[in-house]
Amino acid sequence: MNKLGDIIKEKGLKKGFIAKKIGVSIPTLQRYIEGINYPGADIANKLSKILGYSIEAIFFTKDTIKVVNDKS
What we know:
CATH topology: 434 Repressor (Amino-terminal Domain)
Distance between the termini: 21 Å
Radius of gyration: 12 Å
Shape: globular
Strand content: under 5%
Order of helices and strands: HHHHHH
Low-confidence stretches: none
CATH class: Mainly Alpha
Largest sheet: none
CATH architecture: Orthogonal Bundle
Structural class: mainly alpha
Mean pLDDT: 88
Helix content: 55-70%
CATH superfamily: lambda repressor-like DNA-binding domains
Number of helices: 6
């Protein structure tokens, strides 16, 4: 799970606006929001700039980081 959907709501932005700015379809953006898919570095960077949050703050939670660290 990521915070993308919460951040979009907090900023009061429309999904169509964001999707157009980052060059993806609304269904693709929705899959990013739901955590079904994750964007590549270029799209994640665009989202970071539009939303004013770091990539880490958008896509990674403490639970995500713990799972990654536990796999080592």
